[in-house]
Design brief:
This is F5/8 type C domain-containing protein. By secondary structure, this protein is mainly β. The protein folds into three domains: 87 residues, Immunoglobulin-like; 95 residues, Immunoglobulins (Immunoglobulin-like, Sandwich), CATH 2.60.40.10; 162 residues, Galactose-binding domain-like (Jelly Rolls), CATH 2.60.120.260. Helices cover 9% and strands 38% of the residues. Strands 10, 11, 13, 14 and 15 form a five-stranded antiparallel β-sheet that branches. 28% of the residues are buried.
């Protein structure tokens, strides 16, 4: 049987055209015979984090028919409406979303036109919101252990701090002036010290630091509590405590010269004796100590001669008059450090400057308050069994 292929092709084409006509308009049934319109999209959407809130911002769509934007979060469970006040894409619309929890959010922005048509929507993801959990991790910026503060000749005090953390914004320092008024100073992130005028000597200095969790955050966070800058113990209350077994003085360098605020010779010098030996002093009042400085004899004795290399610090509130150690508690054992590490007799400029500023030794946290101090010398830089020093500064909490 012969097949007319031309006729067959023609029949197929006819049926195809009929089929297309039949289904080409079927989509209209799903759209209720209405055209779908999608309003224009916003651009450059981003956020600034905050304290239990966030700021969203974006450049508006140039579509003039847009009347409002819907912002939603928590998978659409929460939302807010923002009116379209501009259609200039050079402008920026900023929106504060309040009353959030400390969490990481995703926000969706949907534009609506004047006929109720909506855009496909855009998301701003990974929006971290901060709150009390973050705040609880913050610590106040550390004051300088080596040189917490300096009393200046004009009646002011300069408080020194360690390098700030990268997220630190500022630190507020509170103090009392000579008129009895509470005053504040402010330390910026890049500053290492702050000077407080008309300072009432011996009064409390406390400080609190502020942080930005992110560089563009709209809120800063303060550390929950103030910390105190330790103050110099009142050396006018100090007195020698001479107990049986304590070593004496020699060459006219007396024990009380260790707290006479004279950082030049003479200081305190002991006679020669075998190690260990010790001396004691009365601070006059009980104090919670945070640290102390020992000032070496300088010149040829620097990191040499009878300057202490290893020693112990002991404390008591009721020393036994027989001079025994039974009523004393050892606070810590210390080793003097030479910055250059060079051998005895070979000192660098850094070594000289470090010693001249006084070598700082920290008191372990949690050490109970004490009134009486005993220093037990275990070794000197030269190994000679005698001791000398120019001055002692004890730092304490102001309580």
């Amino acid at each position: 049987m012969k097949i007319n292929y031309k006729a067959l092709v023609l029949i197929v084409i006819v049926f195809a055209v009929i089929g297309c006509r039949k289904y080409s308009d079927d989509y209209k049934a799903f759209l209720d015979n209405h055209e779908v319109i999608y309003p224009g999209l916003v651009t450059n959407s981003h956020y600034n984090t905050g304290n239990l809130r966030a700021q969203l911002y974006f450049n508006p769509s140039p579509d003039p028919s847009i009347t409002r934007y819907s912002l939603s979060w928590n998978n659409g469970a929460d939302s807010m409406i923002v009116n379209a006040t501009t259609h200039d894409p050079k402008d920026t619309i900023k929106v504060i979303v309040p009353s959030l929890k400390e969490y990481v959010y995703s926000f969706k922005i949907v534009a609506f036109d004047d006929k109720g048509n909506r855009s496909v929507g855009q998301e701003i993801n990974n929006v971290r919101v901060y709150g009390g959990v973050y705040q609880a991790t913050l610590l106040n910026r550390s004051y300088s252990l080596v040189n917490p503060y300096v009393l200046n000749g004009d009646g002011s005090v300069t408080v020194n701090f360690e390098k700030a953390d990268s997220t630190n914004l500022s630190t507020t320092v509170q103090y009392t002036d000579n008129n009895g008024e509470l005053k504040e100073g402010h330390l910026k992130k890049l500053s290492a010290s702050v000077t407080l005028p008309n300072y009432k000597t011996g009064s409390l200095i406390k400080y609190k630091s502020y942080y930005l969790p992110e560089q563009t955050a709209i809120d800063s966070f303060a550390v929950s509590d103030f910390d105190e800058v330790p103050i110099l113990a009142n050396k006018s209350l100090f007195a020698p405590l001479r107990l049986p077994g304590d070593i004496g003085s020699a060459y006219g360098w007396e024990l009380q010269y260790l707290w006479d605020n004279n950082f030049n010779e003479p200081g305190f010098h002991t006679p020669g004796q075998t190690f260990p030996f010790w001396f004691s002093l009365d601070m006059g009042v009980r104090s919670t100590l945070t640290g102390f400085k020992m000032y070496q004899r300088m010149g040829g004795s620097l990191y040499n001669a009878g300057n202490a290399k290893r020693f112990e610090l002991w404390g008591s509130n009721d020393p036994d008059p027989n001079g025994s150690f039974d009523s004393w508690t050892k606070i810590a054992t210390y080793t003097s450090t030479k910055p250059s590490g060079k051998p005895v007799g070979d000192n660098t400029n850094e070594d000289v400057a470090f010693a001249a500023a006084g070598e700082y030794f920290p008191i372990p946290a949690g050490t109970p308050e004490v009134r009486y101090i005993r220093i037990k010398v275990l070794d000197t830089w030269s190994g000679s069994a005698y001791f000398h020093a120019l001055e002692l500064n004890f730092y304490k909490q102001n309580r």
